[in-house]
Amino acid sequence: MRFAVTSRGDETSNALQKKLINYLQEFDLELNEETPDIVITVGGDGTLLHAFHRFHDRLDETAFVGIHTGHLGFYADWKPEEVEKLVIHIAKTPFQVVEYPLLEVVVRYDDHTRADRHLALNECTIKSLEGSLVCQMDIKGEPFETFRGDGLCISTPSGSTAYNKSLGGAILHPSLASLQVSEMASINNRVYRTIGSPLVLPQHHTCLLKPVNDVDLMLTIDHASLVGKNIKSLQCRVAEESIRFARFRPFPFWKRVKESFIGD
Ligand code: NAP
Ligand code: MN
């Protein structure tokens, strides 16, 4: 089996990364940064998000597992003191795989010349760099509303505990292949009207966002942000691809939610 280990880059995580590489090599596993079967991330959720994007071209062949060194670690759910146990699991037992849905975002530009396709593990957000975002939202090909406000967040089920949660969105179990649209400070009065509630869309229901005013936009895809000029539309739906997590022990989603947000 080929493995890669990524680190947040701080001293603790780097030391643990080295330790893991040595241990796994002692078990005759092959260190391979290009085509790993398993990617172990050391740091936090941010580290796992980075690793996901680094290996997004081979999601079918890669399984992820995260160790958290401080911070929250919603995806990165192994503790540093469990490293020996994890290494033995990886080396000795065929692991189970749990798949979580992803978000596909296709960005189209005014000049029609190109379309960029992105995958998000947590979410995509759209905001205006200056003034309010005004944007037409179509659901499944039908006009739904004109949004006016700070921005919109389109999240995956596993990303529903991240930015989406801060916006009052619901927490969705990752077995529900869906996406959630939540609002950032929408303007609602006699003139402007939005639904106001987060929306959950099933697979194959596309949410199309078309900016109306001519402003520069800021898009984020997970941790990465890009300034968008001349964006015609953003097409969001549940992706065909999914992320695969290596599972060595049961750790139910709701238990993870409880430990992360309520405490033990
Ligand atoms: P960050 O600023 O370190 O992330 C913010 C927090 O979100 C961290 O505590 C992070 O955990 C946690 N987190 C990430 N994914 C999560 C998930 N699926 N469920 C629960 N918590 C999660 O930046 P980052 O590490 O690069 O992560 C990028 C993410 O930050 C974005 O995808 C977005 O969801 C989130 N974010 C949230 C807000 C907000 O809530 N107002 C604003 C901007 C961005 P770790 O400490 O373990 O990394
Ligand atoms: Mn982080």
From TrEMBL:
NAD(+) binds at D45, G46, H50, N122, E123, R148, D150, T161, A162, Y163, N164, K165, S166, A185. The keyword Nucleotide-binding applies. Coiled coil: none annotated. Its cofactor is a divalent metal cation. It is found in: Cytoplasm. It catalyses: NAD(+) + ATP = ADP + NADP(+) + H(+). Keywords: ATP-binding, Cytoplasm, Kinase, NAD, NADP, Nucleotide-binding, Transferase. SUPFAM superfamilies: NAD kinase/diacylglycerol kinase-like (SSF111331). The active site is at D45 (proton acceptor). GO terms for molecular function: NAD+ kinase activity. Signal peptide: none annotated. PANTHER family: NAD KINASE. Involved in the regulation of the intracellular balance of NAD and NADP, and is a key enzyme in the biosynthesis of NADP. Catalyzes specifically the phosphorylation on 2'-hydroxyl of the adenosine moiety of NAD to yield NADP. This is NAD kinase. It comes from Aliibacillus thermotolerans. The lineage of its organism: Bacteria, Bacillati, Bacillota, Bacilli, Bacillales.
